[in-house]
Amino acid sequence: MEYVRAALVRHGVPAEPSPVVLLAGPRGSGGTVLLDAMWREFADDCLSVRLDLRSAQGVEDVVLAAVRGLGRRIPGIRAVDFPRTAMLLKALSFIDTGGGRTAFEAYLRARPQDAERQSALTDWSNRAAPLLSPEHRGLLDVLTGLLGALHSAVGRHKDARALRWLAERGGGGREYDSLWELYRQHRAQDGPTGTPRVVARTLCAAFLADLRHDFNDSWPRLQRPRNCLLLLDNAGGRTADLFLELLAECRREDAARDERPDPAVVVAVQRGRIRPEAARLLDPADPELAFGTRHPYAPGGAGHPVWWYPVALADLTGEQVLALCTSSVLGRHNRDADFLHALAGGHPEATDRLAHLLARFGRTPPADPRRAPAELPEPYDPRRLLGERLADDAHPLPPAWPAPPRPDTTVEDYLLRRAFADHLTVASDGSLRPGDNTLLGVMAVLAATPGLRRGACNATLHYLDWTDTDADTAQLALTAGMWLEENEDGEAVRLHPLAALLLRRWLARDPALWRKTHMGYAAHYSSRTDAPLRHHHTLAQAEPGRREPLTAVAAYLDDEFDRATSAAAWLDVLERVTSAPTRLATPLDPRTFVTSLAGPAEDRNRRRAVTRLAVARWLHADRAFDPAHQLAHTIAGEYEHLADITDDNEELYRQAGKFRRIENSWKD
Q1: What is the mean pLDDT of the chain?
Q2: Which residues of 628-644 are buried (b: 16+ CB within 10 A; e: fewer)?
Q3: What is the pTM of this model?
């Protein structure tokens, strides 16, 4: 916000253009909210436009909408003429009914009412209208008012300056030669809506040239005090990506010609991987976003302008989640915030939604003095949160939220539809069916193993008889959506906690598929060195009616206790095994559930202590299972049982103390 505020202020003609700011993050990471804040802050003080480029079909749509948006009347700010852009749009919109070049030139000279009959501008305007943001909705009814200006552009501006500029870019020739050639290339395109690159580049160049002339060529006393602002949402599609690329390309060409910089301050939101030439300029260690400071790896030398400045949209911190949280379902405000932060990993939109819903579902009705204490409603169990239905007339959702597609839409489904909207296929009745969402299933299988190992995933896909899919496609989709961080070798580094949660729960919807997936991984990790991974996936299969996997894991950990060189080495194996995902849920006290699965505690029984510790650590790691950290008591007790019968017990007592502190901090 401070950068945009400073970049909008003009102190004469700037030395270089402002870099295109790319706000990048996964879907729901707050880019649109930030654009909202910028629009509220700056729109009334400068020429500005906000566009949603999701439905842009061609660069001409973007340019036409931008020209119209910048034509919004602001008291005290004069409008911009766009002679070059208007002439070019008029020429490209010509509909040839057989007259060829002669009719084309007559059309350019015709009166507005005569030219309109041969123009496609009405159709173009209908395509461009949805790009304008809700703040511009008042312009939609008068969007065709631009048509008259475009139709009469040549006559009104006496065409000399605009034609001269177009002729210079086209290499000379007669006055309409360059326009005719661009029109022919535009009409020769393969698709009905895409824009040929040379035509799109000329449109961008004309747009910037008109802005540059208006802002830079006025008398010093009449120069505008502020630059113009372009806010572009959903700028990651094919058309939007081309527009931004050509914008930077035109700026490089203008700099090579020693043209003065254009005044456009461009802020674009991309939901997905940043373009490579921009990504290498990102400095993750820059805490103050010093846009004027050149990144040491930027190409072109110290005097070369910076064309891109990508900014990764960060997750919310614990303090920010605390500020969003308004409930105290778990007894205290900060406990609910801790639960929400663990559940969504700080993802901005998901945290905002879950915080609102936790407060909504956890709201206790006013006490009725006529009712006996035994009849009072039970406190809300936050373990139910993800499975709650949203359709509730008694607690309507905020108007700004997208409406649930079905009455039975759960919180989990709602988050899934938002986070993975680009990869979901929705049935005609609005439901999500695993059979219709193969890619999502493969992503869930890939996310089920530590490190998202593609080789192991491909082996498991073969075990599942999913022969038409592969792990590379799933990893590419996760990376492109910015849910997965990779290292320089393309190996997975970190899957976002929200994506991990939603994919795990998607896989868990089919218990048979869950078991077979982890059986496939366990079969793949067959070597001695892979024993922790094998038992990691074996533990994931354990459930009350199926104790064999737990018996195998307990035997392995008990034997490993003797083989390990130290208690610390054994604890490392325990950590790797018990980080397994789980699909288990219970309405019971989690400690009671552990006892039902692993048996009651027994002093000086090492196998029982190891079994209970493994189960408790495994389930404790899932905050949706143990939101109040109730299993910290069980974990600490079993660490102490092991320490009491072990000589190398210092690290075991240290771990017990860690979980005792957790237990004490969560006691009511």
Answers
A1: 86
A2: bbbbbbbbbbbbbbbbe
A3: 0.86
